[in-house]
Amino acid sequence: MPHTPLTTDNSAVVLIDHEVGFSNLIGSHTIEENLNGTLALARTAKLFNLPLIVTAAPEDFPAGPLYPELARVLGDTPVIHRPPLFDAFENDRFAAAIETAGRKKLIMAGIQTDICLALTALTALDRGYEVYIVVDASAATTKETHDTAVMRLVQAGAIPVNWLAVGSEILRGWVDQPLAPAFGELIYEHLPSWRHHHVANDAIAKYATK
């Protein structure tokens, strides 16, 4: 299938079940890694003004509320609390939100990769959407479980990405892009190694001119 890039006009971000109770089950990533990737993806969606569809179990469900840090990033973005249905498309409000967004490309992440994320993504593929699975904003009980779920989705037609790849594909480059400074700062905050690399390069350049 010919590749068409992610853009602000054709893409939406979907976050599924990033809840504190589920985070205690994950073993494919640390909680800190999953939280970092999830926040970075949500902030990327906000920065580029992408539709952001968020769903979770009822607030009184044992899985618990959303990550508090994620709730702060989301601000007034509505959260679709659905009954404990693994495939979020079985909830009419979620399905309607996806349709209302009107975007062909769904950038999806969730916990657990092999259950709610996988089943929702498979239905999205069946409905004709192009699905991107953000692997560093998703997690499962073990690395094997996570990797196998991603493999299953890739075989079904999904595209594996990370949050940085998503933002970079939308930004297209650092030249003549008004949002480049803000995206660069977002990268620095969530990937400190990038800031360290640039600081080191600046120091080398200054030293070389002595």
UniProtKB/TrEMBL annotation:
SUPFAM superfamilies recorded: Isochorismatase-like hydrolases (SSF52499)
Isochorismatase-like domain sequence ranges: 11-161
Membrane-traversing stretches: none
Entry-linked InterPro entries: Hydrolase_YcaC-like, Isochorismatase-like_dom, Isochorismatase-like_sf
Name of protein: Nicotinamidase-related amidase
Organism: Actinomadura pelletieri DSM 43383
